[in-house]
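> tool_call: predict_assembly(chains=two)
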Amino acid sequence: MRIALDAMGGDYAPAVNIEGAIETVSDFEDIDIILVGDELSIRAELDSKRCPPNRISIRHASQTVRMDESPSVAIRKKKDSSIRRACELVKNGEADGFVSAGHSGVVMATALLLLGTSNCVDRPAIAAIMPTLKAPFVLIDAGANLHCKPENLLQFALMGNTYCRVILGRSEPKVALVSTGEEDTKGNELTREAFKLLKEADINFMGNIDGKDIFTGNADVIVCDGFTGNVVLKTSEGLADALIKMLKREVANLTAGRIGYLLMKPALRNFKKKTDYDEYGGAPLLGINGTCIISHGRSTAKAIKNAIKVASDFAENKVYEIIASAIEKGIANHERIKVAKK
Amino acid sequence: MRIALDAMGGDYAPAVNIEGAIETVSDFEDIDIILVGDELSIRAELDSKRCPPNRISIRHASQTVRMDESPSVAIRKKKDSSIRRACELVKNGEADGFVSAGHSGVVMATALLLLGTSNCVDRPAIAAIMPTLKAPFVLIDAGANLHCKPENLLQFALMGNTYCRVILGRSEPKVALVSTGEEDTKGNELTREAFKLLKEADINFMGNIDGKDIFTGNADVIVCDGFTGNVVLKTSEGLADALIKMLKREVANLTAGRIGYLLMKPALRNFKKKTDYDEYGGAPLLGINGTCIISHGRSTAKAIKNAIKVASDFAENKVYEIIASAIEKGIANHERIKVAKK
């Protein structure tokens, strides 16, 4: 598999991106990397790391999109950005997929523009895998679409359902909709309308889910608009960090606690691994014609490596084609049910 | 202080509500309670607890609002609900404030209808106090308004700012707006418009806050619409629960870990207390003419007791009057700035 990596995207780019690329080729024999971005900086970084050059190549791009840029302006004005050039490699068949830890709104808009959406998909969505008390679940949309219509949420549910089957191996995923309470009457206009569509869809819809139940592991796929998804994802990350720090501080205040802490350390390490978002690497953009993995802006080299691995698996299993055909069937079924009811 | 308690609201009502009332009168000499709801059930519960009757009285209400009812229907059809009767006691001056763990949408609508909003306030908002790595912060709106306009968020910011000064004693609270990134350009239409208003307001506005930074303790007041606030509040509760359970399970898998766990137990207990929402009791509805405290549906007796204490403090310090005058000044200032700019 050949994966294009936006070398310039993310808070610690290009250094950690390139480190992640080097770790990838050393860990996985079947993945080659094309680093996309400013050739001089990339080459300097590669040279300093004394990397054997054979499985890592460079594609120059003269522009970098900043995190504070408006997507529409960046798309219009930066035709030679590392995001766009990486996406073009996928479009032209020179790469099997691309990974970016850059501005996720711009990555989404670029993929939409260059690769296009699958049939019956109006808006692509980010599907993030998150840990729980039991097994992990799929959160969709984790931040691509800040304005959604009820039909978008139906499409997200269908895509998330298929993704969960393929990637997490659940035969009949339980799908839930984020709202302010479990009851049908709870929520805002968007969720109440989406509830009706999801209820009629050919999925195992379990109804609304309240924030407090998101991490119980009772739902396999959790659907929401991208604003809410971004808030859920980031609040959880921030809170998990804060709780671990608070716990450490409590322990440091007690001598017995300090000994206890040392004895508990292997358990804490295991725990941290389970809740460590770096382990999951990146989240795919579902609904586009191609493989595009969006990584966290704060990605470490390990996260970049894992994101590249996700991209490679995604491309190898042709997941986007499976999703395209599932959603076409799902929407067709939905239309049939609607017509039959009339 | 006389506080009216909706005896029928919440998942474990009326038993825990009445237990909470009994604990309150035994812990606080200056708080009397009026239990509002079905007289027969309340009396049976009180009798079983052999409570000295002198500081707890009963006001009968024949109806109870269920959690799955639509607020508009409940308001129209249940004129003798425990929520409405409790609110009426405040309106008539028979109680200094009221507490309910029932349907928060109905509590909000009833308070709005019977007590009315302060001048310059279009919609009241729930202000929840939440723990962080440093000091606690105020989250506003924590769930009252699922549809908001930018002007509502400005009013929430002004109310939250004053509440934070009065209750948390911060002289110049740092106010932040929940969005999908720190940059001005991030977020949806609502947050982008609200950003402009907050920037011009007479508060210490620090800009957008991303979910990952909510629990760092850098902001004193965090502003959002009620749908987002409900999701932040409940997701945090659920995740804190899940993380503690995951940690315990990791520890149970190791013998050394188990000993460590025993040694760490006092630290864990302290930690749990800091992150225990029961400690905070209830959240006030800001912007109405009176004292109304909304408690969690899953309130325990301890949470009910703490909510009653919050109501009593709120009423004693006339917090709602302080907020009413602050927001009037804040909005007037804002209008002046707007006019001056034109």
